[in-house]
Automatic annotation (TrEMBL):
One of its GO terms (molecular function) is hydrolase activity. This is Alpha/beta-Hydrolase. It comes from the Eukaryota. Keywords: Hydrolase. Residues 47-203 form the Alpha/beta hydrolase fold-3 domain. The lineage of its organism: Eukaryota, Fungi, Dikarya, Ascomycota, Pezizomycotina. InterPro entries: AB_hydrolase_3, AB_hydrolase_fold, GDXG_lipolytic_enzyme. SUPFAM superfamilies: alpha/beta-Hydrolases (SSF53474).
């Protein structure tokens, strides 16, 4: 059995809120190298990670989607990683997911420092040095966090093939061959839900048919809801005086889940509206999640990490 990619870290779980008696947790990953490096307290930057899964599936510690290069970069920077769960659709709608994200950020600034100090590992968090990252739906939540919750004070965003425009960005062309299912499966799932049901963790591929069904049957926008805060391009255009932090966009040319053209268009619009906001666009060969097993030696990853390091 191969070693877990989280092996260089010491994990600890904390509850940042409770919904209908269901705890929503965040895992704090502390690099072992800084714990073992000495007894004097070390103040560490923070890397917040939002997991992907189309807002339908996923888990804060599902390592198959957590890029190796990103974990190694955090370890090299001596950063503490904080990766939260959030409510999933269709049990929750988009507004409720945003509520979770906002409450998580409030916990980061109100409770994280005390939780880390209580671990007695000789480390502290530097809440003045926060970066946020995420893959797919996690990239979407990362950018929304930066634009909707300025109190979170993140310095830089890493968006890996994020669905920056849910009205147009999800491709359904190849989904049927990936996860065949009956047309009524999603409706039947929704009809079977008990009132007040909460689901915060559903590791892939167990619920792949549900996720693919939501996308293929065009139910994503219906489940997401009409809250204008959920549509990043609209938020960007209304942001006004909000200072958008630097963003590194990563996307694969052959992505058949989240369309590359939407990331390109969003990057262009960002440059037009916020010409002073640094933005790096890395387009490489590969499909959705193409970078998860890359280790960081690749030149484009080194370039991107240097971009992040400058602002973090």
């Amino acid at each position: 059995m191969s070693q877990s990619r989280f092996a260089p870290f010491t994990p600890n779980d904390f509850t940042y809120k409770t919904v209908s008696q269901t705890p929503l947790q965040a895992t704090v990953l502390v690099p072992k190298r800084i714990i073992e490096g000495g007894k004097s307290a070390k103040k560490c930057p923070v890397l917040v990670h939002f997991h992907g899964g189309a807002l339908v599936v996923g888990d804060r510690m599902f390592e198959d989607w957590f890029a190796i290069w990103l974990l190694r970069f955090a370890e090299e920077q001596g950063a503490i990683i904080v990766t939260p769960d959030y409510r999933l659709m269709p049990e929750a709608n988009g507004s409720e997911i945003l509520d979770d994200v906002e409450d998580f950020w409030k916990w980061v600034h109100g409770g994280l420092a005390g939780c880390v100090k209580g671990l007695d590992l000789g480390v502290e968090v530097d809440l003045g040095r926060i970066a946020v990252c995420g893959e797919s739906a996690g990239g979407y939540l990362s950018i929304l966090s930066a634009m909707l919750f300025p109190f979170a004070k993140m310095r830089v965003v890493i968006c890996q093939y994020g669905a920056v425009d849910y009205a147009h960005s999800v491709s359904v062309k190849h989904l049927e061959r990936k996860a065949p299912m009956e047309e009524k499966t999603v409706d039947e799932y929704i009809a079977s839900l008990k009132p007040g049901a909460v689901r915060v963790s559903d590791p892939f591929p167990g619920s792949a048919p549900l996720m693919m069904g939501v996308l293929r049957e065009g139910k994503k926008l219906e489940l997401l809801g009409k809250d204008e805060r959920l549509f990043i391009t609209k938020v960007l255009e209304k942001a006004g005086s909000v200072q958008v932090p630097p963003i590194w966009f990563v996307h694969g040319r052959e992505d058949d889940m989240v369309l590359l053209e939407n990331t390109v268009d969003f990057h262009k619009r960002l440059r037009e509206l916020y010409p002073d906001t640094p933005a790096l666009l890395s387009i490489k060969d590969g499909g959705h999640g193409f970078d998860v097993d890359m280790t960081g030696e690749e030149e484009w990853i080194r370039e991107g990490c240097e971009f992040v390091r400058k602002f973090w």
